[in-house]
Amino acid sequence: MKVGILAIQGDFELHKIALDKLSVDSLYVRNEKELNNCDALILPGGESTAMSLLLNKYNLFNSVKKFAQKKNLFGTCAGAILMSSNSRDSRVKNLKIIDIQTCRNAWGAQIDSFSDNIELNENLFFTKKYYATFIRGPKFSNVKKTCNIIGSYHGNPVLVRNEKHLASSFHPEIGEDLCIYKYFIKMINE
């Protein structure tokens, strides 16, 4: 199995470090040829408007959308915004891969970044609490029935999945707990 990490903008290096700790083969994706060598793809946090522009500039928008029809995606923060059905921001071209709405920077500006425990649904991969870091993170709303809320913070969904895809409003690449990555790897193998 090889997991690609979209590497056109954002904090893609920390995702590679997390996957390396789990001995998961990974590569940076900057073009369609690299994308086609992957079994799954992580869309990192960063700046969703810039990432949206760069997906188009590098002719990756349609390739990622087509890739997602058969393979797994994991979007963190800005990556989740791109994956959502609607971000309510005309500067972001949404991939419409996961049926949620996102509101950019809803947890506050850069200066409002914080870490706190979130509640995770219990399963073999999670403990009840997970220490999550929010950096200008989006809030999720209008989570449709095709999605399951896996994690929440003060009653707000912050980790959501559908059949193939996973979206988080926080940054799992920050910190030592790799259970979210283990869960995504399990999804790839389902």
Descriptive overview:
The protein has 190 residues and is an alpha/beta fold. The protein contains six helices and twelve strands. It has helices spanning 12-21, 32-35, 48-57, 61-68, 78-83, 179-189; strands at residues 2-6, 25-29, 40-43, 72-76, 84-86, 98-103, 114-120, 129-134, 139-141, 148-153, 156-161, 166-168. The relative contact order is 0.17.
Average pLDDT reading: 93
- Distance, first to last CA: 13 Å
Helix content: 25-40%
- How many alpha or pi helices? 6
Number of strands: 12
What are the salient characteristics of this protein?
single chain, 12 strands, 190 residues, three-stranded mixed beta sheet, nine-stranded mixed beta sheet
In short:
This protein is α/β, with parallel strands linked by helices and 190 residues long. The protein is built from 6 helices and 12 strands. The strands form 2 sheets. It has a 9-stranded mixed sheet with strand order 2-1-3-4-12-11-10-7-8. It has a 3-stranded mixed sheet with strand order 5-6-9.
